[in-house]
Amino acid sequence: MASFLRVRPVTAAPGRPPILPLARPAVGFTAGVGLVAALAAASMAYGAMAIPLSEVVGAYTRFNGSDAHLVVTTVRMPRTLLAVTVGASLGIAGLLLHMLTRNPLADVEVAGINAGAATAVVLVAVLGGASSLALLTATSLAGAAAGGLLVYVLGALGRDGPTPLKLTLAGAAIWALGESLTSGLLTAHERALDEVLFWLKGSVAGRELDLVGPLLPWMAAGWLAAVAVAPALHVLTLGDDVARGLGVPAGRVRLAAGATVVLLAGTAVAAAGPIGFVGLVAAHAARALLGLRPRWLVAYSAWIGAAVLLVADLAGRFLAMPEELPVGVTTALLGAPLFILLGWRALR
């Protein structure tokens, strides 16, 4: 383990106390995992075709080739697994962005990371299409890195450096620029529009295990990296002077955290398209439960992000029946009011 990850414990940090402090984080985490499991079961059981839970279990214990069993194994199980893994990745990425920027409004959508990834993927589609998952993933990662870096550079301009307000404004600008570029590219190339329109709204529907499997190791690597870097990143929230006194190299920690965010967000976008506000909700909910416990915050952000995306996907199946809403639309319906509330509180 790198030396900058071994830091002396810090007992005080700025910020509001947790709303619902948990004396035993392990108990809360176990309950959270149970909630995710229950939501995953509901995800495999409910939709346009309701399937009893006994049949969901039977699809794996006594498969008989019936329509219900085929729907569970080939359609809903990959969709559910993708929602869990992408939700966990986005939840952790949102938490790291909060700690990295000290900005309560930070999220992969607001930070320009989603916009960069989506613009890069659309550009590749226009130029000839993403011929493989490897190319799609690499393109998404490169776009996510470019979008996040551009936001940081713009937010760092001026005498005060990268303040939370400047980063938020820069992120909004890059978000708008990315939307304009993707709309322009797709308007000029209708073939590409047909290929990526539903993906651009953010969706876990219609994906297969062949997509989830290759991306899962990359997501898992991001989860482990987040657990490793979280304590040192937490020290940076106390200020660079305190971090130096504790032997934490600020530059390397920020670089490691930024690379982890790009890895998590880039693979999530490659798998499900740009989905916003999951990280915003997960990070704030985790802090409300725990306060400032870095590694537990990562674990809680993971299960909360997974739960949020499962709920959003289930809601999307019923809000517009017999059609479905892309999960990116339902997460926006959930997250946008929170974003407005947080912005109002920050400007009071």
TrEMBL record:
It is found in: Cell membrane. SUPFAM superfamilies: ABC transporter involved in vitamin B12 uptake, BtuC. The keyword Phosphoprotein does not apply. The keyword Transmembrane helix applies. CDD domains: TM_ABC_iron-siderophores_like. It holds the Pfam family FecCD. It is a multi-pass membrane protein. The chain crosses the membrane at residues 26-46, 80-101, 108-127, 133-157, 215-236, 256-285, 297-319, 325-344. Keywords: Cell membrane, Membrane, Transmembrane, Transmembrane helix, Transport. PANTHER family: FE(3+) DICITRATE TRANSPORT SYSTEM PERMEASE PROTEIN FECC-RELATED, FERRIC ENTEROBACTIN TRANSPORT SYSTEM PERMEASE PROTEIN. Belongs to the binding-protein-dependent transport system permease family. FecCD subfamily. This is Iron ABC transporter permease. The lineage of its organism: Bacteria, Bacillati, Bacillota, Clostridia, Eubacteriales.
